Amino acid sequence: MITEKASINEQVMLADRDDDTQFLTFMMASEEYGMDILAVQEIRGWEEVTAIPNAPTYVNGAINLRGTIVPIIDLRVRFGLPQIEYGALTVVIVVSVVIKEATKIMGLVVDAVSDVYSINQETAKDVPDFQDSENSQFVQGLVNVGEKMVVLLNLKKILDLEVKQNEQLVVGG
Amino acid sequence: MSIDLSQFFDVFFEESFEGLDIMEAELLNLQPGYEDSETINTIFRAAHSIKGGSGTFGFTSVANFTHVLETLLDQIRDGRRQLTAEHVNLLLQSVDCLRALLTALQAEEEPDLSNANELKVKFEEILGGKENVSSDTADSTSQGQESQTYQIDFKPLPHLFKTGNEPLYMLSELSELGDLETHAFCDAIPEIDDFNPEDCYLSWRLYLTTSYPESAIKEVFEWVEDDAEISITLCGGLFEDDVSVFTTPELESEKKETSSNETQNIDVPKINPATKAKPEASKKSAESTSIRVGIDKVDSLINMVGELVITQAMLTQLGEQEPTENTLAAMQEGLAQLAHNTRDLQENVMRIRMLPISFVFSRFPRLVRDTSQKLNKQVELKLLGEQTELDKTVMEKISDPMVHLVRNSLDHGLETPEDRIKAGKDPVGTVTLNAFHQGGNIVIEIMDDGRGLNTEKIKSKAIANGLIQATDELTIEEINELIFRPGFSTADEVSDISGRGVGMDVVRRNIQALNGSVEVTSAKGVGSTFTIRLPLTLAILDGQLVKVAKHTYIIPLISIVESLQIDIKKVSKVGNGLEVLRLRDEYIPILRLYQLFNHGGAIEELDKTLLVVVESDNHKVGLLVDDLLAQQQVVIKSLEANYQKVNGISGATILGDGRVSLIVDISGLIKLSGLKRPGTQELLVEQELDEVVS
């Protein structure tokens, strides 16, 4: 019985590997970024947040998501991009990611949601070695979709608040 | 077809641990020489279930060990062996041993059998000589009695099969005891149209010729006592009055009145594990993640949800009607009802988390017994208010501090019997645990009638440790308070029971982490009392909403001493820019919340703001806020779950308008402000204040 189960599992995994992974992509400063769609819980409009004292600059605050307190991260600030006014298109992508054995639910503020692509992970190129940029740790790979290039993100690194970016980090903390 | 038994392992372990808890509690109740058969039966049944379960699941080490234990218990309950204190000790040790074995098995580790084997040898020594230890079942120990014939009437109730019992197995088990003659009665079988295949329609009359005692026969039927009519009668005169352990005293006396030559029906009294042991089984298991909820609580919840649904239906209907004056009024009424329903529901859901404090108390009899034996002290433990209810989370966390306090009372508080006699006291000391509700708090008192705190010793120790100055004038309360300071232990020698130097300060810190407090009162020679005060629940908090810049924060109402407008003339600045307010004869450091939290846009002029004076760890500080808003009960939510620990913030909540608001953590705030040097209890400012005053 055990061997049967194992072989079924193997088949499932093989099937997975053959299938393409689906990525949700979004726009930020005219660049298109993608994240594994399985991590995405929901997409919401921007709403007022409650500030968290002495939080890193990229943490906007926390919102009430049906009874759960969810921190909101401004991805532009996290990447060191210039901030813009939040508008009608500004969205919050709520993701759930396992960080250090605990499932964390967080919201990411991005300019706008773009598309869903099926991408074969093996076609993804490694990140070129930007020597100086701390941001490269947030990038999992680069893929071409038609004419466009999409940056696939490493959510675990982005949402791990202990991973520092640039120098503009934790005040007080 | 084979069934994967491992899916039942969890249930087996849970039940076995509960069984061990029952055994432990009942063993502690046993007084050698005064044992009552019901207590021994309860212990026996618990052991029997563990043996049965472990045998079924293939844990032979446990089954074999439980078997010897059960043999001894069986002899005691049959009156063939007198219970001694040695037996009780050995049985208690084997409970520990079984717990260790089961824990190892649960963790899928190889259990360490050395302890079990040692105990087994001891059991066999006790059992040896007179009894045949190697015999296969507990019941065979009574071999050598003459064969007797019993008439057994076994009439299962129709629902027998649904309880998972199979009469055929019982019959074959009986046939192993001796010669069995069976007569089945089929007259209750209905017409085929009325026949329910899940019901049992058969009944039996059995004649069993056996050398085993009647108790062995009863054991076969032990699990179906409630699901069948069973009567066991001895045929042919030789009735032994004392065979039946199930006989209640009433039956016993009845029996004496009837002539002993008559055949007698002894109905098995309706005391069986299902009804009798269950309430006890729900004792303990404080660590388990599931809780047992009383059916009354569930019923009342269902009622309330029912009402809620009705109200909701009414509102939906009203919403679909043409809006008129009348429907508006009805709608408002409906909404009021909805609010009422919701509040009731909330209160009752919270009640589900409430469990009687006996879950914690029940571990103390054993602790007191073991500790007092180790210390050669005679101690009586009194438990009061065991039914007082407390939130499950609080309960789990209060247990360790309480153990510490009780050990302290036993070790330091109570004197040795000789000293007690010298002092004119009863040589048996008393430790009392008392729990009761007071306001929104639960109060737990740990009282002993020992020597009380030695204020002289505490004072000299505190001076030696530099906690106080030799010249300080302290009241008795202030001196007693010193034992909660870190690194304070008056025990001259470090014993393995208490006095490791990590003492009362840890107790206090743990209790404060639950938003509670602990105090001590003591009188020399009369005893000391530790009083723990805890909020009933950690899930809800009475909060004061305050405004800081454009942000709303919540300060726990329990820590607020007073709120006031600042009189600028009474504010003075001490070193490194710290401001203090002279309030009556105290100096209160002022913490500007907007500074600590890094918020811009707050009112900075002292005379335009409000000061909320709060107390934590016996230190008073003033929090500067822009305005006081409403007071309300808030449901505490974790900020850490999806984010990380924030200094000065203990959690978050959701306000009426759906926004998130953060709850201020006073002791965290004091740390954040840098008022306190790490590792010390003194606020930095207090030393400076002394200078200002002098």
Structural features:
heterodimer; A: 173 residues; alpha+beta; OB fold (Dihydrolipoamide Acetyltransferase, E2P); five-stranded mixed beta sheet; 3 helices; disordered N terminus; disordered C terminus; B: 694 residues; Four Helix Bundle (Hemerythrin (Met), subunit A); Alpha-Beta Plaits; 5 domains; six-stranded mixed beta sheet; five-stranded antiparallel beta sheet; 21 helices; 23 strands; 40% helix
Q: Can you offer a commentary on this structure?
A:
The complex is a heterodimer of chains A (173) and B (694). Chain A is of the alpha+beta class and 173 residues long. Chain A has a single domain (2-158), classed as OB fold (Dihydrolipoamide Acetyltransferase, E2P). Chain A has helices at 2-18, 75-78, 155-159, and strands spanning 21-28, 31-36, 40-45, 59-65, 68-74, 91-99, 102-110, 112-119, 139-145, 148-153. A five-stranded mixed beta sheet of chain A has the order 8-1-2-10-9, with no helix packed on it. A five-stranded mixed beta sheet of chain A has the order 3-6-7-5-4. In chain A, strand 9 (139-145) and strand 10 form a beta hairpin. The N and C termini of chain A lie far apart (53 Å). In chain B, the strands form five sheets. In chain B, strands 15-19-20-18-17-16 form a six-stranded mixed beta sheet. Chain B has a five-stranded antiparallel beta sheet with strand order 2-3-1-4-5, covered by helices on one side. Chain B has 21 helices and 23 strands. Chain B has five domains: 5-139, HPT domain (Four Helix Bundle (Hemerythrin (Met), subunit A), Up-down Bundle); 144-277, Alpha-Beta Plaits; 295-352; 358-535, Heat Shock Protein 90, CATH 3.30.565; 540-693, OB fold (Dihydrolipoamide Acetyltransferase, E2P). Chain B has 694 residues and is of the alpha+beta class. The N and C termini of chain B lie far apart (89 Å). Classes of the chains: A alpha+beta (173), B alpha+beta (694).
